[in-house]
Design brief:
By secondary structure, the chain is of the alpha+beta class. The chain has helices at 8-20, 72-90, 150-153, 194-207, 218-226, 250-259, 353-357, 366-373, 418-421, 436-440, 450-454, 550-553, 578-586, 607-610, 618-633, 677-686, 703-711, and strands at 44-50, 59-65, 94-95, 117-118, 126-132, 178-180, 234-237, 243-246, 265-271, 376-378, 384-386, 408-414, 516-525, 568-574, 591-595, 651-657, 669-671, 694-698, 718-719, 722-723, 726-730, 751-755, 765-773. A hairpin with a 5-residue loop joins strand 10 (376-378) and strand 11 (384-386).
Amino acid sequence: MLRHPLSRRARSALPLLLAGAGVLGATAAGCLTRPIEPINPKTTGTGIELLPQSAVEKIDLLLAIDNSRSMSDKQRILATAVPDLVQRLVTPICVDDQQARIDPQPPAGSACPAGSAPEFQAITDIHIGIINSALGSPGGPACADPDLPILPQDSGAHLLTATAAGGAAPTWAGKGFLAWDPDGEKSPPGEDNVGDLTATLRDMVEGVGQTGCGYEAQLESVYRFLVDPEPYLSIEIDEEGRGQPQGFDDELVQQRKDFLRPDSLVAVIMLSDENDCSANVTGIGWRTYQADTLWRPRSECAVDVDDPCCFSCAIPDIGSCPVDNSCFDAQGNVLGADDDNSNPEKNLRCFDQKRRFGFDLLYSTQRYVDGLSQPKVPNRQGQMVPNPLYSDLDTTDGTAPQRASNLVFFAGIVGVPWQDIARDPTNLANGGFKDSSDMAAGGVDGAPTGWDMILGSADGKTLPLDPLMRESVKPRTGSNPATGDALAPPGAALDANSVNGHEWNVVQNDDLQYACVFDLDTPRDCTQKDANGVALHPGCDCRPTADGTPDEIGNPLCQDADGAFGTTQYRAKAYPGVRQLQVLRGLGDQGIVASVCPSFITAAPTPADLQRADYGYRPAVASIIDRLKQAIQGGCQPRILKQDSAGHVQCLVLQASVNEQCSCDAAGTEPVPGDLQDAVTLANELSPDTGWNCFCHVKQLSGDALEACRTDVSETPIVDGKSVDGWCYVDPDQGGNEALVQSCPVTEQRKVRLIGEAKGGSGTTNLIACTTSSE
């Protein structure tokens, strides 16, 4: 949730406000993840934050799909999985009172049988958009290709509508995205037939293609579409050699405004088989795309990239650092990068830059963590401005709800062995992928975490424990810690290593070793050409080459069932998706990790194959649904609040909106009393850019109504013939019904529950203020 520091006046005011609300007793509630002890009146603090929605009614789903060469096979697998995701959102499965799936499931559209209920309320308002990874190569020619059209090389993160056949998909109101609208509430109405919706979506996923720039900007594309407050039209290089953004992309901003609602759950699903290469083109990062060689690094970089003297040889004076003679030739000219690192046409410009070139030319991954989680981001001048992802982009509709950061999710289907992130590394169907809690958990005595296995330490000082996740041109050694299988040398027997086959000889130092491989649905003859002599498979990895014979190269992608190497490609590849995984780690519970290498895939799947829990990207869909449904059901709390003898917690709930006809007539609400008006000031300090002008106080329930709220699983409990309207705190450890928090993460099995008319409608933002105690 979003948290903002409060002024000293506001901090001192809140205990009095809560007393005025009749909620201060012998104990104080806290905005902490530990129980709150009885208040010492001299040491009270405050906290105010956005309250998770009691239920999600809208979802904005953005598919960010890598469109570089080698992606067509992964796009086909995704095209079969994403419709399953949409189907599950619009037709939730039936579960028992322990949230376990019942079998058999009733036919689609039928009510759940007695003793079961839908796992969550069906979503009736979904936007689905697609962008690709191609932002071109500003400042350089790296992505110029006369044989390919301009648009796929630089789509500018605009929404895509192409179909697999090259046509244009019918999108909602011609705005570039699909809209699920079975109730016909949009104008014009959106799609109301889920079969038609998923068929169009499948066609659009395959329509992304693989003709995009090989320098993929997967993360920056997402940032540009959802977050960037001033997306540029072009980059020009100034006299000092720095990239300067020019113009303003009004078309993208309009697409963002049409697509993104301020009160929706936002889910980004990224599909990519390669590491992110989002160059900071507004600095000197544009040099990544230059045709000439990059510079040689100072010798310190080979020892420690964090050494203050680890810099490019192109910088002649680095303070107190000694002259490094390895930077210059006999005539005193600065040397370019060594032979292994110099060729700009080799798709390695974004690999291990600081060590190889003395510069890190990419955006920090923290940019993307902050962009997906923080209410403010920097503009072109470096000033902090409202983040469009957390803003009301349409100020004409009379509403200004604000999205909490726990309603923004980022799922990465990226280059990582599925065995490394599976709960059971021998069988993905047995438990699926680990969630963020599993990934962060270590064993006793400082045993490594899941992140240690695939990323190493957060400071980069320690390499991943899995050598398959270490980016390297040269063959690697060691063993996969999940399977125990040793890495095999180039040319080894078929599947000598169960994860990536084996290493291979990158003769021209123009590629990396693979993190994982999997069987193609249809092998590709890399020698095939059309009638005009053009290769039928331009991204084929087993093309004939002068770099060596297939046996000398020993590429596991080119090895047949008998173990012989040739020019037919039998497998697909993925490289370590290091930067995407760093963002997923940084987002904590809002990050969802999955592997682009499926556990099971077959060329001619039977209906039974398609229903397997480990087929294709079905495990990724399962992980995404499991995480989203916790937010869809709403209200899960990381904090522990201490109840008093009446069952109350010491918090104040407000509802904020933009409404010139401000009314607090809904049952369970009232105008903010005079002695609580300072709470409005606290709320506006939290979100000064919303323009909220209407605030209502939501009443905390008491007596039988409180007990019903804490224990009755009905959507609207009834007491004495009347619906219950208001809020309560539900904690099974303090008398609440465990069934009400069953879907919450294990670390958040408690909630502030708003029920009845007190839930608030569209355009309303719920806020909560609690007191905290200090030691």
